Amino acid sequence: MSVPRTERLLNLLIALLNTRYGLRRSELRQKVYHDTSGNDVAFGRMFERDKNDLRDMGFDVETLTDLGWSEDDPATTRYRIGKESNRLPDVQLGPEEWTVLLLAAQLWERAALGTAARSAVRKLQASSRLAEVELPAGVQPRIKPAGQAFDDIVAAMHDRHPVTFTYLAGSTGKEEARTVEPWGLGSRFGQWYLVGHDRGRNAVRYFRLSRMTSAVTTLARERYSPPVDFNIREELDRLPELPLRTAVVDVKAGRLLALRGRTVEGLPDVAAGGPADGYDRLSLEYRDPEVLAEELASYGPDALAVAPAELTGAVRRRLRAAADFSASPVPAYAFADARPRTAAKGTSEDQLRRMLELVPFLVHNQGLHIQDVATHFGVSREQLEADLRILICTGLPEGYPDDLLDIQWEDDHVFITQDLDLKKPVRFTVGEACALLTGLETLNGLPDLPGGGALESVTLKLLAAAGEEGLRAASLAGPQVAPADAATHATVRRAIEAREQLHLTYLSPQHDAVTERDVDPLRLYSLDNTWYFEAWCHRVDGLRNFRLDRVQDVHPNGAPSTAAYPPAEGVPAKLFTANDDDTTVTLQLTRQGRGLADEYYAERTAELPDGGLVADIRFGNTAWLPMFVAQHGGTARILAPAELARAAQDWLAASLALYGG
After folding, report:
1. Are 103 and 443 in contact (CB under 8 A)?
2. For residue 44, what pLDDT is reported?
3. What is the Rg, in whole angstroms, of the alpha carbon atoms belonging to the chain?
4. Number of helices followed by number of strands (H, E) in the chain
5. Backbone phi and psi for residue 281, each to the nearest 5 degrees, phi listed first
6. Which helix (H) or strand (E) holds 123?
7. I need a surface site. Which of 38, 268, 283, 611 has the fewest CB within 10 A?
């Protein structure tokens, strides 16, 4: 997006904020747009787009007319923005409330609403100084990225556009095209569900995101109105959990210890014939065939789904899709450069939102070093200076020097002396309100939250500040983040606080073995309610991540922790820690699977015309990558190194051979 557009939007905003009577379109055209083209139709379209952009940012553009005149007459219609109605009310928070709020915002770090959460926190910091807080030792709860479908549906839901996608119906096992008005999105039973009005069936329906078999397409030209009193949590509370069922699986002898640990007694009746030589027949309980199929597909030729037929078909479908994708022609692609991957380039709207947060932040934090300001906003110094140069060139239409924003940073310390009444942050957008309020709701049940009712009090304060946008947070519900094994969680937490070393008995699925090791625990973090802890492992002399539900025994060994905290990699903890001897693997990801690039910290990416990506990702252990390709069922494949690509194809071919080709 061009810099002039950002300047135009900012100048338009300042002009509309600083008029009590209102400005006619002709005045704005001359003084703000400097448009002398004479093309009234083109200017009218541009002006309407700009008004909509300002409304999307939280500004109500009022339309005023003289008594007896119609809004259709541009000569008598005036426009303005009320100063207070568009401002975020002051929200005063104590240290415990800030602690809870930062934990809630941190939940979305790797999810779609992470940018909105960070923006909302910056707005609160601009109007209420951040208290000195200390987050619970080493604890970083987070929501697991739910894929590109989640991002697309959230955006469509907030803008109230219908969406279309193909869906694998659980009742029929058939793929069907659906057009849905998305009313709400929430997590239950470890899965994300979309609830909305299915236009084809003219009824409310529930859709599991993991059953969507195509990318989500937004119908941007259409709009809808959801029910006024809709609440996604209440809807999902009525959703019954799938019943327990029993699957029959043949497992290669001596393999898959983790899967064997979940076997149950008794085998249901299946077709005549026993397992092939070298395989054991097991019974497993499950609720959702798609979830179990994803796991069994990853095991490749080490596991064969025997019954029921629905499960067998689901595994075969995933393997077939992965094999077909791996065998398809390699697309033309080119990485832009060899620099590490950074966030996507922002639009004019993104830049303007950042600058509207920047002005009140500078007003309340005079004299900060310019690099500290850039770090606070998550941009480079060069980008921040570009923002500041735009700001100092904007102000009232045809204003004198005193009518311009006045910011200096010649000595690397930033001061603002003229703010043109932009010193209060803009009210929350729908996305920002949803990110914080849904995050706070998600924290319920998390151990060791600050006491004194901080969670309830900060929620009430944000609801009051967010207004109507806060009410729309009822359309989003996060997963539970409380740890399933509270005792193990507490043991690790105490060791982190006391700087104690732990002795660990751990089941490693990648190595298919149980090992014992001594570790220095550094921090706990979660993806939904799956908890991990990062530790320095003395067995391998390096950083490792351990899943709490795979810990068979853990206790202090009496030695003090010797690892430095926090680790050099800083926060947040990464599920995959890069090392110098890692292998760089080039993956092709479909549009559905492109979220894996962020989940695995891709170093660089190349966009593909179909919405997919080619990504370079570093892996320490490449032996499990064929499992990775099979698990993702046609949304990811290996392009390079060639030997890894061949290994994955061989793995898929051997897997399909078990199912008859």
Report:
1. yes
2. 87
3. 28
4. 20, 25
5. -95, 130
6. helix 114-127
7. 38
- One-letter amino acid of 464: A
Question: How confident is the model over 546-605, as pLDDT tens digits?
Answer: 999 999 999 999 999 987 655 544 444 555 555 667 899 999 999 888 888 888 888 899
pLDDT in tens, 6-24: 888 888 888 888 888 888 8
Cα separation, 60 vs 83, in Å, equals 10
Distance from C-alpha of 349 to C-alpha of 346, rounded to nearest angstrom? 8
Does the CA dihedral 187-484-463-59 come out positive or negative?
negative
The distance of Cα 249 from the centroid of its chain, to the nearest Å, equals 35
Cα–Cα distance list, 470 to 96, 460, 478, 578 (Å): 22, 10, 15, 39
In the Cβ-directed half-sphere of 228, how many Cα atoms lie within 13 Å? 0
Say what the pTM is: 0.77
In angstroms, the Cα distances linking 335 to 1, 27, 589 are 21, 46, 14
DSSP characters for 422-484? --SPBPPPHHHHHHHHHHHHHTTT-TT--STTHHHHHHHHHHHHHTHHHHGGGGEEPPP-S-S
Other CB atoms within 10 A of residue 2 CB: 8
Contact in structure between 552 and 506 (CB atoms under 8 Å): yes
308 preceded by cis ω (within 30°)?
A: yes
Least confident residue range of 177-191, 217-231, 234-248, 399-413: 399-413
Mean pLDDT of all residues in 404-417: 87
Tell me the C-alpha distance between 623 and 215, whole Å.
Answer: 30
Do the beta carbons of residue 442 and residue 143 sit within 8 Å?
A: yes
